[in-house]
Amino acid sequence: MASSVRAGPRLLGALAGEELGRLPRDLRAELEAALAAETPGRGPLVPFRLLRRLAGALREAGSPLYLHELLEGSEIYLPEVEKPPRNPELVARLEKIKAKLANEEYKRITRNINCQELNQYGTLADLGRHVRSMKAVVITIFNFIVTVVAAFACTYLGSQYIFTETAARVLSAVIVASVVGLAELYVMVRTMEGELGGL
């Protein structure tokens, strides 16, 4: 925060001349001491409190000089703010938190990536799923064939009591096996349609 002014040429010249001759001695001595002090930069520093006293003294003395005229060419001095050193424990904790957040972000970004899925043949879970679906298809086909063959055999053997000729027995067995096969296909289609609808 600013607390002083870097004196300009007007203020320095006024103090050297007779313009400020009617000031009290202690104020004049303080001003001379402030202006004579060595400061790094372009000019000496004069504190605000001293400038307030100077403005009051000029008013009391009835001087034709005003403070704003004396401060022409002067600048407000803003000292550099020194940053306090950072606490090493705090820095270490912040680094840990940053690393943890970066790790969580990385896991969030890569959560749907599975290196096993990069294999062109798939994973073991995919293989098991394919084997189960293939097993279900093989069992269904085997069940269909067994049912049709069993219907044919039962009709062929059972029709010997009705028909004496072999051609009639085979024809009746084929008709019954076809009807059973169609019924089995209808049931399979409805079952598959229900499974696909559930997906």
TrEMBL record:
Q: Note the superkingdom of the native organism.
A: Eukaryota
Q: Which GO terms describe its cellular component?
A: endoplasmic reticulum membrane
Membrane topology, as annotated, equals: Multi-pass membrane protein
Q: Which UniProt keywords apply?
A: Endoplasmic reticulum, Membrane, Transmembrane, Transmembrane helix
What is the first-listed, main subcellular location in coarse terms? endoplasmic reticulum
| InterPro entries hit by this protein | ATPase_Vma12
Q: Which Pfam families match?
A: Vma12
Q: Name one GO biological process term.
A: vacuolar proton-transporting V-type ATPase complex assembly
User: Where is it located?
Assistant: Endoplasmic reticulum membrane
List the transmembrane segments. Answer: 136-158, 170-189
The UniProt entry, under PANTHER family, shows: TRANSMEMBRANE PROTEIN 199
The molecule here is called Transmembrane protein 199
Record organism: Pelusios castaneus
